[in-house]
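BUG: 3D viewer hangs when loading the predicted structure for this chain

Environment: internal workstation, default settings.
Expected: structure renders.
Actual: progress bar stalls at 90%.

Input used:
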Amino acid sequence: QVQLVESGGGLVQAGGSLRLSCAASGRTFSGYAMGWFRQAPGKEREFVAAISWSGGTYYADSVKGRFTISRDNAKNTVYLQMNSLKPEDTAVYYCNGDSSFITIRTTPRFGSWGQGTQVTVSS
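Structure tokens produced before the viewer hung:
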């Protein structure tokens, strides 16, 4: 059974930084694109960033230039470095993956959604 465990969230002031981590167990990352998603209160979950198996990246316009996604395939872990945080970045952040770098943005199917990690940005 695939398990995704996100960590690294917290409370930070606007302009601050956080680094999120997501570790997977039960299935290797090998060959999968991995991504980060977020869900703000009262809103649907949305795509944030994705990274292909070979390291290509893609970002939502709202985070482009501020967030950086990376991965350590040996550790089965994906990261999200978040800089210049804004109050509108406040959300629960989740990771997931897919065999396709295209469809990961809409239908990630690497595993079931984990608990997520809360990010709160104060103004």
